[in-house]
Amino acid sequence: MSRRWYGLLLILCIVGVSGCRSEGESALAEGNSLLNSKDPADWERAADAYIRSIETEVKARSQLVRAWTKVGERKMHEADKMTLKREDEMQIHLIGGVAKRIGMLQAEYELYTAAVSNLQLAAAALPNDKMTWYYLGLSWGQLSRGQPDNADAEHLLEKSDQAYKRALRIDPDFRNALYGRGIVLVIKKDTDEAERVLQRLVSLEPKEARGYFALGRVYYDRREYHKAENIYHILRELVPQKSPKRAVIDENIRKLEIMGKGRP
């Protein structure tokens, strides 16, 4: 059923926002054309065209939320009818599955506030689903970044950490959750726990760079510059020479060599 529903959702999204996408793409094309003009007045008109393109995308995302909400409401209504004279547990699982799918898609589109609402509904129905808790951790972590009040940001970071921990209790080797929690712990400055989590991650994916970058930050924050330098030497072997990250790695190694002089 999930595959059929996903196909229906894609069709609905395409139909629902295709007009907006066309308008936005037209404005983008207009801006690109005007920007290539030699007339400075056209450059100002290009800026206006780009603004229209961005505004269209914002409107499209808003409409996308409405579309998902309507699909979710209909599916939940269908779940009510399908589970008539059946166990209530079946109805809860159907509704939770719909809420999970909508919440995951909203998180993928960076609509984190809307995602949290659906994912919390899914978590109540599917408490042992690791993906639901992972996306809740991701959404709360991202929402913490936009909080001007430190107390609000810390509260959201703590919720993010707890969600990742729930996902990891279900699957201790869930790599994305290990990485997500590692980053949250770095931000929270809980470097000891961050080191433990990220060491676990790199042991599971020793040829992936993301865990090493985060681990290097842990050692840097603790002023353990020799350890941080060792991590960047590992990264230098992992990251392709043509990657733009190589310049950052080499520069960090140079700085850490200087900072590490005279330290144990």
Instruction: Kindly name the structural category.
Output: mainly alpha
Number of helices: 11
| Percentage of residues in strands | under 5%
The percentage helix is over 70%
Contiguous uncertain segments of 5+ residues: 1-21
Radius of gyration computed on alpha carbons: 23 Å
The string of secondary-structure elements, in order, is HHHHHHHHHHH
Span from first to last CA?
A: 60 Å
Strand tally is 0
Query: What can be said about the biggest beta sheet?
Result: none
Apparent shape: flat
What is the overall pLDDT average? 82
Q: What does this 3D model show about the protein?
A:
By secondary structure, the chain is an all-alpha fold. It has helices at 2-35, 40-82, 88-108, 112-125, 130-144, 150-170, 175-188, 191-204, 210-221, 225-238, 245-260. It is built from eleven helices and no strands. Helix 7 runs antiparallel to helix 8. It is flat. The chain starts with a helix and ends with a helix.
Write the layout of secondary structure elements.
Blueprint: H1 2-35, H2 40-82, H3 88-108, H4 112-125, H5 130-144, H6 150-170, H7 175-188, H8 191-204, H9 210-221, H10 225-238, H11 245-260
Helix pairs in contact: 1-2, 2-3, 3-4, 3-5, 4-5, 5-6, 5-7, 6-7, 7-8, 7-9, 8-9, 9-10, 10-11
Question: Which key phrases capture this entry?
Answer:
single chain; 264 residues; mainly alpha; 11 helices; 83% helix; flat; disordered N terminus
Task: Please give a quick description of this structure.
The chain is 83% helix and 0% strand.
